[in-house]
Amino acid sequence: MAKPIFILNGPNLNLLGLRQPEIYGSQTLDDVAEACSALADDLGVSIRFLQSNHEGQLVDWIQEARGAASGIIINPAAYSHTSVAILDALSAFDGPVIEVHISNIHKREAFRQHSFVSARADGVIAGCGVEGYLLGLRRMVGLVPGGKT
Questions:
Q1: Of these residues, 54, 81, 101, 106, which one is catalytic?
Q2: Is 24 a catalytic residue?
């Protein structure tokens, strides 16, 4: 069986659907996980969907992915703008990386318009709402060895 695609989610995404629905929408992270799982089944791939509010936990999962994942889709949330540690961990991962943001970070506050993660990402999806995860998963399948184009 092929290695799964890790889908990693950063801080406050556990509050999706409750926190600022005018920006992030009304779907919950569980809804996103279910949609990703259904699409993964359709695409013939497996996923591991994880969320943490802790930077070190995200780094640990990225390091674990080095031997266990075919690719990483990551919504680093606020850590996009602050975490060199996450960038460094992603830089040690040999597979493809897709960065996802629910909102368009380029239309938000100036401090949100820079992402350290983008320097490592093979693709960035921003401003497509939670559908960005599905777009990222479709793109990832085209990037991983043996994936569909």
A1: 101
A2: yes
From the list 24, 54, 79, 106, the catalytic residue is 24
Is 54 among the catalytic positions? Answer: no
Tokens representing residue 5 in the block: 């695609």
Q: What is the CATH number of domain 5-143?
A: 3.40.50.9100
Distance of CA 139 to CAs 11, 38, 107, Å? Answer: 24, 16, 24
Helix (H) or strand (E) holding 47: strand 47-51
Contacts of 99 (CB under 8 A, 6+ apart): 74, 75, 76, 80, 115, 117, 118, 121, 123, 124, 125
Mean pLDDT of 73-77: 96
- Boundaries of every domain in the chain: 5-143
Residue 21 — pLDDT band, cuts 50, 70, 90?
low
> In this structure, what token pair is assigned to residue 10?
């950063």
Q: Say how far apart CA 49 and CA 51 lie, in whole Å.
A: 7
Closest CA to 49 of 100, 92, 94, 85: 100
- The string of pLDDT tens digits covering residues 31-62 is 999 999 999 999 999 999 999 999 999 999 99
